[in-house]
Automatic annotation (TrEMBL):
Its main location: mitochondrion. Residues 4-175 form the 6-phosphogluconate dehydrogenase NADP-binding domain. NCBIfam families: HIBADH (TIGR01692). This is 3-hydroxyisobutyrate dehydrogenase. It holds the Pfam family NAD_binding_2. The lineage of its organism: Eukaryota, Viridiplantae, Streptophyta, Embryophyta, Tracheophyta. It comes from Digitaria exilis. It is found in: Mitochondrion. Keywords: Branched-chain amino acid catabolism, Mitochondrion, NAD, Oxidoreductase, Transit peptide. The keyword Iron does not apply. GO terms for molecular function: 3-hydroxyisobutyrate dehydrogenase activity; NAD binding; NADP binding.
Length: 311
């Protein structure tokens, strides 16, 4: 039932995810608007298609891994989009792993629920959809160790789990449509705030005469310990193999972080909730992007905000 997988969006993340599906034995067909990205797959004998609509014609399940909401809406509803066949749909399952706002996920889910299947396939009487954004970044995508946060019907989640686990190490069911996206943007808002908090504390420590490496040792066995202190330290020279040790290159760009904070703030406004620290973090990341660090890893906030300008 899940044999033929269409994959759309072969960027930093999606290219690795699609290749892991191929390695797991799925029959994968791919599409990207970027011809160069598609050529790499074609050269390896993996079938490519020129539009989402063509992908949908040969797939049982379609996975999208696109930059943001507008791209996802385009791929679903655009003139050659997944849902523009003009009749019943062939894929019975749609999985969007892009980081988008929960409302976009819910809108697409509502659209899908109005569609019909071409034939009765697998577990579903009607086409199903999951929002399944990921955490883990490019190295985890490559190693097949992503974590999926999944929103949608629980039975659909259970049916999709083996497929997700061929690209990741963990799946977490978050509830109905849009809840995976909600979980993802909350996670990233907390990550941004903790990165800025840790960076500020390291900078204060340095100004008070404590070395960042000493303070890191203390944080990591004390109550300030967090991912930004023990796994992704923002101070150059404290940890090896993280973006701060290579001039903040590679990793998760400040531009994507600003996008995710934007989604979180827009979602908060949508439900009349205020996030003062989230909006402060958004301002910081917007400023950082304007100042030319948009393609640097988001941990460059340490150098940029607290230890002088980024180069
Ligand atoms: P990316 O920009 O590297 O890749 C996106 C791909 O989508 C590109 O190849 C682009 O050509 C393609 N694309 C854009 N519009 C298209 C369209 N209309 N039709 C077909 N293809 C189209 O982005 P990425 O880093 O792979 O991230 C993808 C998503 O995953 C984003 O939402 C991002 O926030 C999220 N994410 C990224 C990371 C990370 O570390 N990079 C980690 C977790 C989540």
């Amino acid at each position: 039932h899940l044999e033929n997988v269409g994959f759309i969006g072969l960027g930093n993340m999606g290219s690795h995810m699609a290749r892991n599906l191929v390695m797991a034995g799925y029959k994968v067909t791919v599409h990207d608007i970027n011809e160069n990205s598609m050529k790499k797959f074609a050269d390896d004998g993996i079938p490519t298609k020129q539009s989402p609509l063509e992908i949908s014609e040969t797939s049982d399940v379609v996975i999208t891994m696109l930059p943001s909401s507008s791209h996802v809406l385009d791929v679903y509803n655009g003139s050659n989009g997944l849902l523009r066949g003009g009749g019943p749909l062939r894929p019975w399952l749609y999985i969007d792993s892009s980081t988008v706002d929960p409302q976009t996920s819910r809108n697409i889910s509502t659209t899908i629920s109005r569609c019909h299947l071409k034939e009765k396939r697998g577990y579903a009487e009607k086409p199903m959809i999951l929002d399944a954004p990921v955490s883990g970044g490019v190295p985890a995508a490559e190693a097949g160790k992503l974590t999926f946060m999944v929103g949608g019907l629980e039975e659909t989640y259970i049916a999709a789990k083996p497929l997700l686990l061929s690209m990741g190490k963990k799946t977490i069911y978050c509830g109905g449509a849009g809840n995976g996206s909600a979980a993802k943007i909350c996670n990233n808002m907390a990550m941004a705030i903790s990165m800025l908090g840790v960076s500020e504390a390291f900078a204060l420590g340095q100004n008070l005469g404590i070395k960042a490496s000493t303070l890191t040792d203390i944080f990591n066995c004390s109550s300030a310990r967090c991912w930004s202190s023990d796994t992704y330290n923002p101070v150059p020279g404290v940890m090896e193999g993280v973006p701060s040790s290579r001039n903040y290159n590679g990793g998760f760009t400040s531009k994507l972080m600003a996008k995710d904070l934007d989604l979180a703030m827009a979602s908060a406004t949508g439900v009349g909730f205020k996030c003062p620290m989230g909006s402060e973090a958004l301002e910081t990341y917007r400023k950082l992007c304007e100042d030319g660090s948009e393609l640097k890893d988001f941990s460059c906030a340490f150098r940029h905000c607290y230890a002088g300008k980024d180069e």
